[in-house]
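Please decode residue identities from the backbone states below.
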């Protein structure tokens, strides 16, 4: 038994992994030195959850609910995760998008208790030693950010730690990766955000960002230290500026088990939505013409994975790329432009440049995908044009948080006379229009990355391959029922996210064996093996200690 679970008395109540609060039984209170430290009532997990929900629902603002949930996570992990899992549709928008955007902006001002691991340039030469200060011996997933491109909000520096914290909460809630296996990491190399640097409460390095070799060497030391400390670790890169995101992925993907969620996770969830949309539109997937507004890491990642899916469907790579077009703030991406980045070049079209609406009317896409971080860019004229071209136009307004979406669900349905197949990155409420209820899908990466992580860990994969994300997209699309499609949603309900994650994990693990990167011998029953890995937050009395139930 770990040292953590040998504690007695007050130490049990201040450790979030052992605290059961009022749920300690009379016998446990006597045996574990808790006499006099708790009120008389012996509660249950259900009763505690009811108290938490009542308190949350009485609060006036989502940021207050976010603070309350973070405080709950810091004092009672089981209660936090039980509440989050059982009320995922209500609480995911609080724990993650859209509220996490405000939480990151205000991170230094709402800070209560340290959570996660911080790396600064001053730590050069001792990162591996610092990792020994982390209290958990078996970390399996680390989410890394440098805070330079948080959602659609820009450079938030060390305030961006809210993103890894939130992502890892979803790894646990959505895919059952136990909390002690999760490590949020902030690479704090300063910020170009002058407002933050001048804020006396800002918690990060209040200096301009470190660039060049100093940055690269710091990240290299961190990655090698993580691998040395925890050889099984999966590294997820999150919210890096586009050139940095691609550079890190190219640098490490062949020698570290890693992926970039903004590139590959977003790609898989969008690809799943495209597959599901064809079940509504009646089009063949390989016949789709897709236009992207925005040409950063998210949009290009979607295009890269969609290209692979088109090739798998029988198209040549050249024909596949010809079905994809990009528009950025300077207009259509064409080969004659001199301002394109390396990841844009495969998608630059021949011909002359043109603006967004002109390109839309020329190319006549079946699906329009927004990844701009610029709200309102899908105007009434744009949506009406898509509806004129298509009986069921696919409109993906993927920018986060909700305030940055290219259009709202109500706008998409109203301007298309209810014919749009709409999805967004953050949640929108159902829309009533002409007597019909439209339920917009949410293309949330939480559908993908937790299941991908679970599948990788379950088979001990040495690398994360493109095939795994194709498999994840296919598994997610397969989980959408006909009833959900009939209501206009191209994703399954979030209430089924753990079952969905398990299916994705199964598909990812099977792909790992196909790709030859799984280190664990193939179990006789892979599905059962995966399900046994999943953490279930319940109170148990194990060997005389209040250890929570952790499998795997």
């Amino acid at each position: 038994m770990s040292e953590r679970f040998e504690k007695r008395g007050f130490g049990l109540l201040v450790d979030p992994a052992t605290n059961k609060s009022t749920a300690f039984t009379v016998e446990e209170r006597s045996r574990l030195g808790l006499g006099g430290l708790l009120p008389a009532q012996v509660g249950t997990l259900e009763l505690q959850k009811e108290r938490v929900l009542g308190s949350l629902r009485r609060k006036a603002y989502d940021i207050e609910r976010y603070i309350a949930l973070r405080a709950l996570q810091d004092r009672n992990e089981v209660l936090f995760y039980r509440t989050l899992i059982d009320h995922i549709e209500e609480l995911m928008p609080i724990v993650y998008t859209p509220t996490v955007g405000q939480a990151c902006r205000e991170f230094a001002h709402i800070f209560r208790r340290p959570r996660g691991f911080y790396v600064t340039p001053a730590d050069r030469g001792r990162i591996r030693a610092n990792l020994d200060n982390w209290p958990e011996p078996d970390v399996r997933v680390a989410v890394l950010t440098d805070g330079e491109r948080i959602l659609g909000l820009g450079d938030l520096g060390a305030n961006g730690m809210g993103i890894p914290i939130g992502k890892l909460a979803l790894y646990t809630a959505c895919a059952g990766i136990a909390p002690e296996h999760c490590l949020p990491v902030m690479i704090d190399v300063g910020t170009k955000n002058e407002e933050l640097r001048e804020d006396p409460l800002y918690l990060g390095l209040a200096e301009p960002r470190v660039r060049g070799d100093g940055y690269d060497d710091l990240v290299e030391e961190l990655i090698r230290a993580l691998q040395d400390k925890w050889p099984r670790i999966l590294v997820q890169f999150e919210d890096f500026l586009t050139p940095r995101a691609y550079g890190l992925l190219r640098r490490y993907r062949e020698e570290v088990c890693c992926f970039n969620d903004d590139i590959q996770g977003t790609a898989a969830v969008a690809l799943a939505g495209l597959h599901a949309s064809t079940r509504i539109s009646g089009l063949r997937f390989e016949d789709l013409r897709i236009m992207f507004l925005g040409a950063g890491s998210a949009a290009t990642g979607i295009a890269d994975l969609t290209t692979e899916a088109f090739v798998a469907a029988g198209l040549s790579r050249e024909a596949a790329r010809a079905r994809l077009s990009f528009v950025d703030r300077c207009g259509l991406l064409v080969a004659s432009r001199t301002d394109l980045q390396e990841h844009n070049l495969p998608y630059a079209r021949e011909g002359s440049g043109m603006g967004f609406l002109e390109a839309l009317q020329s190319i006549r896409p079946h699906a329009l995908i927004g990844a701009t971080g610029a709200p309102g860019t899908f105007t009434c004229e744009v949506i009406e044009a898509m509806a004129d071209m298509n009986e069921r136009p696919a409109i993906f307004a993927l920018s986060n948080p909700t305030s940055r979406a290219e259009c709202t669900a109500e706008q998409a349905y109203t301007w298309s006379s209810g014919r749009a197949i709409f999805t967004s990155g953050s949640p929108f409420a159902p829309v009533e229009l002409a007597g019909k209820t439209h339920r917009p899908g949410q293309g949330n990466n939480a559908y993908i990355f937790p299941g991908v992580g679970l599948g990788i860990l379950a088979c001990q994969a040495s690398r994360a391959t493109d095939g795994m994300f194709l498999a994840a997209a296919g598994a997610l699309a397969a989980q959408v029922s006909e009833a959900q499609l009939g209501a206009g949603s191209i994703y399954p309900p979030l209430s089924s996210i753990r079952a969905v994650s398990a299916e994705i994990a199964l598909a990812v693990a099977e792909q790992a064996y196909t790709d030859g990167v799984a280190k664990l011998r193939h179990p006789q029953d892979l599905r059962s093996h995966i399900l046994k890995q999943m953490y279930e937050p319940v109170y148990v009395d194990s060997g005389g200690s209040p250890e929570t139930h952790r499998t795997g």
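Observation: The first helix runs from residue 10 to 14.
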